Structures are given as structure tokens and as C-alpha cells.
Prior knowledge:
The protein is mainly α. It is built from 7 helices and 2 strands. It has helices spanning 10-20, 28-41, 48-68, 76-79, 108-116, 121-127, 133-153, and strands at 88-89, 100-101. Strands 1-2 form a two-stranded antiparallel ribbon. Helix 2 packs antiparallel against helix 3 and helix 5 (108-116) packs across helix 7 (133-153). The protein is elongated, with a radius of gyration of 19 Å.
Amino acid sequence: MLNTSSEFDPAKYRKLLSKAMPAVVETEAENERLLAIVEPMMHRDLSPEEVKLFDLLVRLIEDFEDRHYPMGESSPSEAVVIDYSKIITIEPDKRSGRPCIRGLRMTVTDVLEYLAGGMTPEEIVDEFPDLTLKDIRACLAFAADRERRLATLST
């Protein structure tokens, strides 16, 4: 990821900062904007200035996601009971009202089928850049919660 052939250039870093305009992330739109900058950087060699920018942006993204999608410390059984309500959405006009991820056209069922087919969460995120690992965990939590509710109804 790091191109070690050059030294850090403060002027180049300032130029990158002025273009990326990093700031504390307060909205999902701001988070998505930073993700759109970071994701392509993950797949190429970076200059020392880009590495520093990348680290800064990742910290800002992680801070936002930790505040808005807290996972916390938990046991394996508690980890499944995450609040997926801000990630899994149901809209009557989108995908026939099936549960989708953050209003995207990707359904929970789509993700579960990819996992059942042998894809890892990381492979799914690589294949569908709009998704995050937290989205995949939210799908699993949603499915587990639905299964618990169905099991409760049948007893």
C-alpha cells in the first residue's frame, strides 16, 4: 500500500487535505463522501502523503460508525442482538417491500444468499463497494431476530 520511494511532502499533503476537506463526520452523507474517497485508495499504492490522508479519513469514518452503529463489547450471543434499525430498511416501492440495506436495492436475502453460497463478508464488500462489514452484520442480526420471532410465534 505504501510507496516507499519518496519522502513526505507537506505541500502535497496540504493539497490533498484541501481537496478531501476532512472533518468530523456528523451525517451519513458525509460518511459516504469519505468512504468514496477511501475505498479506491485501498486498491492501489499510496504516496506517503496519501497514506497520512487515508489514516485520517479512516479514523473519521470509524469515529462516525462507532457513534452511530455501536457494537460494544459483547458475548457471541449478544453480538447478534445489534440495533439494525438504521441499517435495514423496508420501503414498499423498493424491491417489493423486502428488507434492504440502507435504502439500497441490495436486500437482506441477497446478502444471506451470497454468504450461503460461500462468499465471505469481505468478498461481498469487495464485490459491492456500497456495502460495509457492519451492513453484513446487520443482515445477520436481522435474520437472527426474525428467526427468533418466528420461533416464538410457533410455540
